[in-house]
């Protein structure tokens, strides 16, 4: 995943862009960038790696020399951005939150026409540069952004920084959010509404799927009306989103609370405590604890002052060390106790398996894992969530392989709660994790906890639905 923040103001906006972008740091682990524009200084840009540090530390010196009434920043889990280029449309910058499934075939079209790519992303084509080149094919910025939406398969929300404000566009199916904030003399556009609160912005508008707007300090102009079909990613509430954020007017932590409560209503396990696996599991655990009347405790404390996120370092041994060092078990709460642990999901299961080893080492009596969403039986095609080299990286696929000895099973029955094959898969996952019991959320309960109609949510990870329309 990635996240962006932009602002247009009647005064200098650099500080708002700096802090607003920083509030998206939980969404990306690879690169970050800021670009600003002023009529006096033109375009200014800085990009840094986040794999060995934090956003604020990397950019605090850069912004001392930045000036501008218009600017944007991005935290990226994939490619270096913003991209700044010069074209017949003029000079402009682009940031994206995107996963382009047909990136190679689109790039081949440019290469066959003797165009070149200057940026790379982990050794391949930089998707944001590709998007910028697709925009430059248009007769104007609106035409160019619509060209992006028409040609890519997957998803793409974006901001375009021009010498006359910002153009914001939400993915054509609305899988990722784009939200407008307003305060006196300025507007902002962001992925997370949590970035608005301490900068004094109030939510003005949630863009609809495929909607395109032009944003200046004077106001908003709608360039394209939203599409009818919404397929917003369910994981925004379950996992990605910051607890204080809202999408489609629905608060993230409230949804997590309801998810946990729904799990508790179906459960009858007796335990000494309920705990959330940090960070996103905490909200789910609160809902479970209050519904079940089992005390909420913290058998793990997360040490964040000096240990960064476990998936930041490139080296696997370093990632494992960071993952171990940042979570400190509280043996007094664990030894000889029965615990119920809430987590958002099981993707590969590696981190959870390591946590289980720590719990056994600390002397726990029983480990009951409760997951806030159904089993992930299909890899994500639209966002950079369950990134993997093959389907077999998913914990569900590994379990099914153990049951069927095939890497290409029909996952339909394994995805249906209450089905015999579903039960076999969950039991195999329980054995693989070496835990006392394992229970997943029912799909309809997760949908109810989010609070949107089922047809407005992307549920591909659980039922294989969705298409590149």
Key attributes of the depicted protein:
469 residues; alpha+beta; seven-stranded antiparallel β-sheet; 16 helices; 31% helix
Draw up the topology in text.
Layout: E1 3-9, H1 14-22, E2 31-38, E3 42-49, H2 55-59, E4 70-76, E5 83-87, E6 90-100, H3 103-112, E7 120-121, E8 124-125, H4 127-135, H5 141-151, E9 154-162, E10 165-169, E11 179-183, E12 186-190, H6 194-197, E13 202-206, E14 212-216, E15 219-224, E16 232-233, H7 235-240, E17 246-247, E18 250-251, H8 252-266, E19 273-276, H9 281-292, E20 300-302, H10 316-326, E21 327-329, H11 331-334, E22 338-343, H12 350-361, E23 366-371, H13 395-404, H14 420-433, E24 437-440, H15 443-450, E25 457-458, H16 460-463
Parallel strand pairs: 16-25, 19-22, 22-23, 23-24
Antiparallel strand pairs: 1-4, 1-12, 2-3, 2-4, 5-6, 6-9, 7-8, 9-10, 10-14, 11-12, 11-13, 14-15, 17-18, 20-21
Oligomerization category of the chains in this entry: single chain
Detail the poorly predicted runs.
Answer: none
Q: What is the SS-derived class?
A: alpha+beta
Number of continuous helical runs: 16
Shape: globular
Helix content: 25-40%
Task: Provide the gyration radius in Å.
Answer: 23 Å
Total beta strands: 25
Q: Give the percentage of residues in beta strands.
A: 25-35%
End-to-end C-alpha gap: 21 Å
Mean residue pLDDT: 92
């Amino acid at each position: 995943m990635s996240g962006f923040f932009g602002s247009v103001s009647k005064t200098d906006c650099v500080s708002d862009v700096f802090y607003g972008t920083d509030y998206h740091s939980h969404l990306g682990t690879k690169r970050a960038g800021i670009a600003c524009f002023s009529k006096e200084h033109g375009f200014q840009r800085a990009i840094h790696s986040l794999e060995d540090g934090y956003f604020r530390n990397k950019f605090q010196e850069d912004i001392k020399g930045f000036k501008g009434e218009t600017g944007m920043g991005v935290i990226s889990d994939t490619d270096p951005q913003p991209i700044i280029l010069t074209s017949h449309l003029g000079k402009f910058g682009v940031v994206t939150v995107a996963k382009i499934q047909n990136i190679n075939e689109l790039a081949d079209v440019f290469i066959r026409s003797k165009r070149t790519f200057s940026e790379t992303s982990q050794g391949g084509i930089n998707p944001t540069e590709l998007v910028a080149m697709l925009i430059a094919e248009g007769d104007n910025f609106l035409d160019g952004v619509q060209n992006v939406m028409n040609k890519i398969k997957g998803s793409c929300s974006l901001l375009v920084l021009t010498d006359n404000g910002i153009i914001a566009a939400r993915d054509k199916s609305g899988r990722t959010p784009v939200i407008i904030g307003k305060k006196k003399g300025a507007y902002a556009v962001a992925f997370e509404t949590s970035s608005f609160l301490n900068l004094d912005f109030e939510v003005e508008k949630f863009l609809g799927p495929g909607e395109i707007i032009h944003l200046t300090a004077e106001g908003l102009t709608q360039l394209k009306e939203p599409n009818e079909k919404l397929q917003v990613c369910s994981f925004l509430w379950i996992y990605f989103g910051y607890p204080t954020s809202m999408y489609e007017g629905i608060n993230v932590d409230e949804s997590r609370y309801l998810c946990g409560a729904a799990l508790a209503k179906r459960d009858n396990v007796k335990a000494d405590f309920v705990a959330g696996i940090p960070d996103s599991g905490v909200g789910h655990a609160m809902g479970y604890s209050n519904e079940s009347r089992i005390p909420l405790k913290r058998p793990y404390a997360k040490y964040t002052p000096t240990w960064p996120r476990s998936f930041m370092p490139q080296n696997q041994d370093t990632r494992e060390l960071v993952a171990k060092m940042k979570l400190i078990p509280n043996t007094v709460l664990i030894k000889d106790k029965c615990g119920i642990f809430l987590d958002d999901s099981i993707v590969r299961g590696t981190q959870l398996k390591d946590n289980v080893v720590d719990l056994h080492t600390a002397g726990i009596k029983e480990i009951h894992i409760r997951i806030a969403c159904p089993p992930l039986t299909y890899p994500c095609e639209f966002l950079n969530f369950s990134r993997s080299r093959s389907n077999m990286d998913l914990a569900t696929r590994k379990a099914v392989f153990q049951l069927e000895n095939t890497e290409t099973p029909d996952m339909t029955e394994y995805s249906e709660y209450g089905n015999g094959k579903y039960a076999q898969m969950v039991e195999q996952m329980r054995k693989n994790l070496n835990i006392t019991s394992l229970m997943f959320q029912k799909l309809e309960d997760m949908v109810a906890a989010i609070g949107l109609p089922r047809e407005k949510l992307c549920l591909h990870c659980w039922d294989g639905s969705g298409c590149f329309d």
